[in-house]
Amino acid sequence: MVRGSGKFKQKRGGGRNFSKHMVLDENGTAVSTDKRWASRDKDDDDDDSDDDEEEEESEEEEESEEEAPAGGSSAQPELSRAERRELKKKQAAAKQAKATEVDEEDEDLINPNHVGKKLNISDIGAPRELSRREREQKEKQEAKDRYWKLHVAGKTDQAKADLGRLAKIRAEREAAAAKRKAEAEAKEAEIQAKIKLAAGKR
């Protein structure tokens, strides 16, 4: 059977065409003649125009912000570095106070993961609040240390039992040592007596 022969013959270039059919309009811009692409182009143009409007608004706001400090600085005398720093601190404190007021108002909108205060290098060495697990471990260790101090002093029940057992063992050992000593002395006396008897016979 010959390859390619069949009921359906493909025409050359008969595949799908994904390119837009573009035509220049009176302004000289390319416009699609296909209705499907035209609707998409309109959506894209709308999005672009919205983006342009947002950019223009943000630029205007930035310009107004830049103009405001410039005007204020001309009216105010130049501040020293310390004064500027204090002013900045006051502004930051006011901003933080404002943020806390907003948080108090909207209790439902509070983010539990939000960090209210940023840590500085000086805060690293400062004592921090322990977590529940760390606190429990610390309490456990302190209780253990207290117990061992009492145990060494012989005030716990276990220490008293151990000391009683040790005293009993010590007494038994002393009795055994005394018994061995008495036996050794008796043996020595017996040997001495035998020596005397042997010397008397001579």
Automatic annotation (TrEMBL):
Quote the InterPro entries the UniProt record gives.
Answer: Casein_kinase_sb_PP28 (IPR019380), HAP28 (IPR039876)
Residue stretches making up the Casein kinase substrate phosphoprotein PP28 domain? 111-185
Bias kind Basic and acidic residues: ranges: 33-42, 129-144
What is the organism of origin for this protein?
Answer: Mycena sanguinolenta
Q: Which PANTHER family match?
A: 28 KDA HEAT- AND ACID-STABLE PHOSPHOPROTEIN PDGF-ASSOCIATED PROTEIN
Q: Where is composition skewed (Acidic residues) in this entry?
A: 43-68
What's a Pfam family in this record? PP28
| Coiled-coil regions listed | 168-199
Name recorded for this polypeptide: PP28 domain-containing protein
Task: Provide ranges: composition bias, Basic residues.
Answer: 1-14
Q: Where is this region: Disordered?
A: 1-144
Instruction: Name the UniProt key words of this record, in alphabetical order.
Output: Coiled coil
